[in-house]
């Protein structure tokens, strides 16, 4: 059934297939990666106005301070924003999901939930979850605590962050 010629044909088929894939990869690399892209001058340049580095320009761009916004935060509006967090976190004490439970998180020590395996990046940034620390973390989790396991992209509006933190503060505080 299997003779030397059959084995030679099978081996030749595998070698031929490998050769086709190698040559195809080489051709694709030559076509798509060495076409001289980015080596010449741009056809047109879009002029962008320089940002001012003065104190006045920086104060205008930042907006209101978090403390001011948090003082007038609406916990009921924060309850609506909780929908985004609910996918990974729970509000019941001791119930961990993908993330640790958030019952009583405002004022709690960072990375202190028993039974949850933290990445270690949070304790390098803060000791306690103050409203200000939560604000920075919710704005850009991976920017504030590089190496955090939280995959959330962040909440851009300061009012939303303040409302959510006010809601979390009202739960188990």
UniProtKB/TrEMBL annotation:
Gene Ontology molecular-function annotations: electron transfer activity; heme binding; metal ion binding
Keywords: Electron transport, Heme, Iron, Metal-binding, Transport
Keyword Metal-binding belongs to the record: yes
Domain Cytochrome c: 73-172
InterPro entries found in the cross-reference section: Cyt_c-like_dom, Cyt_c-like_dom_sf, Cyt_c_1A/1B
Keyword Transport among record annotations: yes
Record-linked PANTHER family: CYTOCHROME C (PTHR11961)
Protein name, as recorded: Cytochrome c family protein
Organism: Histidinibacterium aquaticum
Phylogenetic lineage: Bacteria, Pseudomonadati, Pseudomonadota, Alphaproteobacteria, Rhodobacterales
């Amino acid at each position: 059934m299997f003779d030397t010629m059959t084995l030679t044909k099978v081996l030749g088929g595998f070698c031929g297939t490998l050769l086709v894939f190698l040559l195809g990869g080489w051709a694709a690399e030559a076509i798509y990666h060495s076409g001289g892209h980015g080596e010449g001058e741009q056809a047109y340049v879009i002029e962008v106005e320089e940002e001012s580095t003065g104190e006045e320009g920086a104060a205008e761009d930042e907006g209101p301070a978090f403390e001011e916004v948090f003082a007038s935060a609406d916990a009921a509006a924060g309850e609506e924003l909780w929908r985004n967090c609910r996918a990974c976190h729970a509000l019941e004490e001791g119930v961990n999901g993908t993330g640790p439970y958030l019952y009583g998180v405002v004022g709690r020590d960072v990375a202190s939930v028993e039974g949850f395996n933290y990445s270690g990046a949070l304790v390098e940034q803060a000791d306690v979850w103050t409203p200000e620390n939560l604000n920075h973390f919710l704005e850009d989790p991976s920017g504030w605590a590089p190496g955090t396991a939280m995959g959330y992209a962040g909440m851009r509006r300061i009012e939303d962050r303040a409302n959510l933190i006010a809601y979390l503060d009202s739960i188990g505080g």
